[in-house]
Automatic annotation (TrEMBL):
<dbReference type="Pfam" id="PF13460">
    <property type="entry name" value="NAD_binding_10"/>
</dbReference>
<dbReference type="InterPro" id="IPR036291">
    <property type="entry name" value="NAD(P)-bd_dom_sf"/>
</dbReference>
<dbReference type="InterPro" id="IPR052718">
    <property type="entry name" value="NmrA-type_oxidoreductase"/>
</dbReference>
<protein>
    <recommendedName>
        <fullName>NAD(P)-binding domain-containing protein</fullName>
    </recommendedName>
</protein>
<feature type="domain" description="NAD(P)-binding">
    <location>
        <begin position="7"/>
        <end position="68"/>
    </location>
</feature>
<dbReference type="InterPro" id="IPR016040">
    <property type="entry name" value="NAD(P)-bd_dom"/>
</dbReference>
Length: 102
């Protein structure tokens, strides 16, 4: 099962990724980030780093391709669920868990 975390280099996303790296095989973890260079350390730990920017919706289908489960969080654009759901339906993703900061 391939899991995707969006915003993986941010405050909340990085915590989620750290937890997942301790509990799932690294081959099952993908991360979607606006700046893949900032996620090189995650790539070095086995995560599949993908460009995915909610401000550039054309990047999302490729970022979400082959994903079985995903965690998304509210972005500075507001709730990205609509964009995520559209990409999942086009690429075969199944569902998303919305992650909200406290």
């Amino acid at each position: 099962m391939k899991i995707l975390v969006t915003g993986a280099t941010g405050k909340l996303g990085s915590l989620v990724v750290e937890t997942l790296l301790e509990s799932v095989p690294d081959k099952d973890l993908a991360v979607s980030v606006r700046n893949p260079e900032k996620a090189e350390s995650l790539r070095g730990r086995g995560a599949d780093v993908r460009l995915g920017d909610f401000e550039q919706p054309d990047t999302l289908d490729k970022a979400f391709a082959g994903i079985d489960r995903g965690g998304i969080r509210q972005s500075r654009l507001g709730d990205p669920s609509r964009l995520y759901t559209g990409s999942c339906s086009r690429t075969g993703g199944r569902w998303a868990t919305k992650l909200m900061p406290a």
